[in-house]
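User: two proteins, same treatment. go.

Assistant:
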Amino acid sequence: MTGYYTTTFPFLHGSHSQRHASPQQTKCEPGFYCVQGVRTACPAGSFGNTSGLSTSSCSGLCPLGYYCPGGTNQPVPCPEGTYGATKGLQDARCTDLCPIGFYCESATVTPNPCPSGTFGRVRGLTSRDCSANCTMTTDRGYYCPLATTTPTPCGSVSVYCPTGSRLPVTVTTGYYTVWQTFASSARDDSTVEDGYLDGGALASINQTTRVAQRICEAGSYCINGVKRLCPPGVYGSQSGLATALCSGACPAGYFCQIGSSDYASSPCLDATLYCRQGSSVPSTVSTGYFTVTGNRNTRIDQTICPPGSYCTGGVAYLCPAGTYGDKQGLSTPACSGWCQDGYICPEGSTSVTQSPCPAGTYSQNGLFCSPCLPGYWCEDGSPDPKQHECGADDLYCPLGSDSASVVLDGYFAVGQTVSTHTTQQQCTLQTVAHIPQCPMRTAGANSDA
């Protein structure tokens, strides 16, 4: 009968003790199959989970994740640390040990990748804890994606990886990354320009193993995880700045050195210095220029000295009386020189002939006009107190004359020489013989004769 096998049992027959075989049929047990009364163990790689099996295929091939030695009635789960990726496996080795970066629990068909944030350093791992958290002893700065066999350095200064990172974290705008922190102190590169550790054994790796981010302090700006000091000429008054413009250009009247956080602490106050917008250091005023004041007496620019003035020490002064300044940029009290004789130059004069002395006066020092001398007369702008002699015998010139005066009828000119009379005198008719008659030069009738 199909699915059965035969067996014999001995028994006594008659009065003589004789052994005889009496055939019996028995149903095939699980794990076996029976053909033509012969029982055979199910082949390795298959199993028989029911009785009465009658073919060598038994109940079928051992399923995925299991193995079946010969005569198996129930598939055996592949042990922890192995996996069964095919049917018909015959022993506990299953397909193979779990590969590096994966773990295999009992009856695993496909190895499970070590979770993000952990890594699998060896073969045959049996739990999702794998080898360890993604950390390198005391250091951070590494990440472990799925199926990691060893932690991976975070990558660059623009990302950071705390302990147990599955993926790098992109640094926040206005923040910079640091390469290592300790419980007692923080080596955060905060004193190092560009946010890098300058030299030392870790200089070659600290840029790829950043562990945290920190907000950019005032006076600095951060781009892609790198901290830089605000450039000369600008200032950073707040934290978290993310461009080289920082908070803006240093206002006129102030200067901002590299890393400045407060422009107001560096005003340009000295008259010899000035600070235009965006100044990193004060500029010294040029020769012949004066500095211009802004708010709070700060010096914001320089301007060339105008004509009529001179500039020294960044301050403009009027050219002194008696001098003139006929061009820009003068730098000494001499200005352009002395005023021309015959003219006066008040303070701030711009021409060598600024103000001519009026007729009847003269000047030889440029400071003031004086009356021309008696016996002479002077035109406008006279440099000489004796510019013109009075002239003829019928003319006279008192002090400060602007022209010769004609003697009146009944008068005659007197004083000095014939050509430099200074005044006129009335002629009196003489009746006494020994008193001289009026001079012949007397204007009009001078006697009864």
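Protein 2:
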Amino acid sequence: MRSKNFSWRYSLAATVLLLSPFDLLASLGMDMYLPAVPFMPNALGTTTSTIQLTLTTYLVMIGAGQLLFGPLSDRLGRRPVLLGGGLAYVVASMGLALTSSAEVFLGLRILQACGASACLVSTFATVRDIYAGREESNVIYGILGSMLAMVPAIGPLLGALVDTWLGWRAIFAFLGLGMIAASAAAWRFWPETRVQRVAGLQWSQLLLPIKCLNFWLYTLCYTAGMGSFFVFFSIAPGLMMGRQGVSQLDFSLLFATVAIAMVFTARFMGRVIPKWGSPSVLRMGMGCLIAGAVLLAITEIWVSQSVLGFIAPMWLVGVGVATAVSVAPNGALRGFDHVAGTVTAVYFCLGGVLLGSIGTLIIWLLPRNTAWPVVVYCLTLATVVLGLSCVSRAKGFRGQREHDVVALVGADGKLTHPAD
């Protein structure tokens, strides 16, 4: 399958090979150092809460930074924003590998997140430029979703191995070297794909998706899915290595099983979404989140010390996460082809800020070494999304009925039967 853009000469497989490293490295920046989190406060002379803040800050900034990079990518193009973001990511990663100051570490994490956000918005906007309105868009989103779902499986395990062999600082050096390789390939092979140049930043364009119910529906779908996973990996080290006494390596392997469930699910989304339709797949994903949360609540009450009692329900939650993350981007961006970069920025910004703030609030209010933060987050957000889906469906049905009534009324104002 080839792209519709004459300047993009690559097959779908080559496109995935060129684009995916940027998504993978952005996600690895969050997941890879999870096994080392309990041991980093001593190295940086700070508290566990501060290290936890570096996780939350990265996630929030990776979304919020795109409010700048989305409009810039529409004005300047995808390529310069991508390469600039890659450079910022490299500088920040190498600095993180060297610093011994908690304050500097937090600042560099913000810079690293900004670089990652620039790469993400350029990558997703490029996919939209090339494959908008085509079946390939669902296929490539499904493939990218599968690859991103693999990161939580391999990221903590890879981080644990690097930490064991070379120390936790080598984790960030690894990320920097990976981005150097990805940026070098993009410099050589990634052409500009922007369909049309936007004359100015046009910040008013940021309001376009805000007025669209469909955009909110799929953005909150992403918030529900990705936020559930954010709360999970935020509490998992303390719950499993702290309360349940799991080792660092065993934690990484158990954590990986949840990600494998996500990989398995995302692998089929490219075929499921066109067949069932985005609204049905969205509801299926939210149903999985709710079912998993109910099972987690039961096991937390009756078998709270059981590792399997925590991980097994998370497999079902993982299915919901992968489903939501796969269906959300294309649904949220539908109808905004002319400002894909800007709308992508708003999508990731709102999603990141909402899931980061709501997730952090729930973690702060509830005991961190229990499953209750995941339970409350999944039930709350999934219920909101299902409710909004019902509203959207009702509005669509009402709009169709009004259209049918208009079609049945002739030019003379008299009712015309369909048979006429």
